[in-house]
Amino acid sequence: MDREETIIEGDSLSIIKKCNSVRPDKSLVGLYIQDIQRITTKARKLRFEFILRSENNLAHVLATESLRRREEVYLVNDVPIYAKGKARDESIREPD
């Protein structure tokens, strides 16, 4: 299956910069960054982008609800029913 470009958004600018960097990271999260960089070299069309925390509400809903429900969530082409309203609201605000 050939995927289109995948964009991973995050509201931590320092982490996004580290994920996009090619230099080794020696911070406390360095090993995680190395794992991310290793995975991204295998992915053809993958990029990391910074998003303001105020614009990251859907991720917040997904994280808090999945923790509360004690369930793992894998997003492939859709979001769980409890997040559909938030996803719809965010897609209305985003220009194409």
TrEMBL record:
Pfam families: RVT_3. InterPro entries: RNaseH_domain (IPR002156), RNaseH_sf (IPR036397). Residues 6-65 form the RNase H type-1 domain. Signal peptide: none annotated. GO terms for molecular function: nucleic acid binding; RNA-DNA hybrid ribonuclease activity. It comes from the Eukaryota. This is Glycine, alanine and asparagine-rich protein-like.
